[in-house]
Amino acid sequence: MKAHFHLRTIMPYFFIIGLISVWSCKEKATPTPVTKSSAKSIAKFTFGTLTPAVEATVSGTAIAATVPAGTDITKLVPTITLSDKAMVSPASGVVQDFSKEVSYTVTAEDASTQVYKVSVTVATPPNNGTVYVGNLDGNFYALDALTGTEKWKFKTGASINSTPTVVNGVVFFASWDKKLYALDAETGAKKWESNPATVALLQPFAAPIVSNGILYYGGEHFLYALDAATGAKKWEFRNDEIYPWQASPTVVNGIVYASIRGSSGGKSGLHALDAATGTLKWHQPGIGISESSPAVADGLVYAGSEFDGFMAFDSQTGAIKWAFASGLITNSSPTVANGIVYVGASALTHTNNDKLYAIDAKTGAKKWEFKTPDGGPDYSSPIVANGIVYIGAGSTLYAVDATLGTKKWEAKPEANNLIFSGPVVATGLVYQGIGKKLYAFDATTGAKKWEYDTGRAISHSSPCVVAKDGTVYHAGISGVVQ
Length: 482
Known about the structure:
By secondary structure, this protein is mainly beta. Strand 16 and strand 17 form a beta hairpin. It starts with 6 loop residues before the first helix and ends in a 9-residue tail after the last strand. The longest helix has 19 residues, at 7-25. 4% of the residues lie in helices and 41% in strands. 45% of the residues are buried. It folds into 2 domains: 42-122, Immunoglobulin-like (Sandwich); 130-473, Methylamine Dehydrogenase, Chain H.
């Protein structure tokens, strides 16, 4: 029997065969090539760990950032934003030392590279002035006068009981490692130190004084004159083989006034020497044992004694002009203002003779006295500013009306730490070391502005302040203050 094929039945087969034929005859497609990115830019460079965060400026391949004053740029962590698919070395988030320029290499996806140079500078701190002081740890501090923030610190070999002096951008002081130091007042870098073999110090409490390029300071047996720029010795003077020159010297009209603390055959007492040559002009043993740094005003020299009260001497001859019975111990250094000389005195029992005195500078007559019930002001020297006299006694800083002798205010932030140094007043603040801390108080109200803990007691080292306009303010113990 013949087979019968219907068109309807075979049509699907023809369709399939056609598709296969067309597919087999079609040319195979070529794949589209993938282009890799050549982008290799740094879009953003940020120090996010700083407060506030600092974003650098990206200019071409140079990146620059300025960070706040005081920032440690040796340990900064940058956050780096890159082009898509790019990588950077060193990596983002890795600590870097930016004290020198740092190179960052950005690698694009196509392996091309671009090098970026990053420089970081530290902003110059605002010039609020600087206060300088030493402590018993042998550290010498430079602090921001407005905020108390530490600017720099210099370590010596022993305690610092000396009061600093600043002249022409150099700060001078002495340490119990038996050396005088001269440091750059801005940076703390050492300019020179004295040689104990040629400049023999014993227990330096005093403040150096610089006049006409010469530094004067009392040593174990000699009063020394040194070149202020180099520390080289210009001359030395000795008048006693036993006792030291303890008080701060002062220089007025070409004469240096200084005293030997002790009593041995009439050789101790107050001395006047030619400032240029060291030649003795006169010697006054009548003052007895004295740690009181002299002050000079209107032809008179003023200084206190441990047993013989407070005295005035003729500046040209050394003759005693008058004496004032100021109590048993008058190691406080005097300050003269508006015809009145102010000085503190103490009794060994700290009773009725713990006083601040105001004395007529010409006659020696008492103008007023102010009792300091918290203790004696024997090692705190008064300072006068804007009609107020400031002095420390016991644990208390007193502000007293300079004309009337009435208390304006008192500050006692630490009940159990005694004051062994003098205050300094500068630009509306009064600075005083109490215990381990240096304090700044409002000079008008006594309100505390700031405190800085040095870690060890501030003993006998009174602060010295350089205001932002360059004016230097010294403590009453300094020979600069008359």
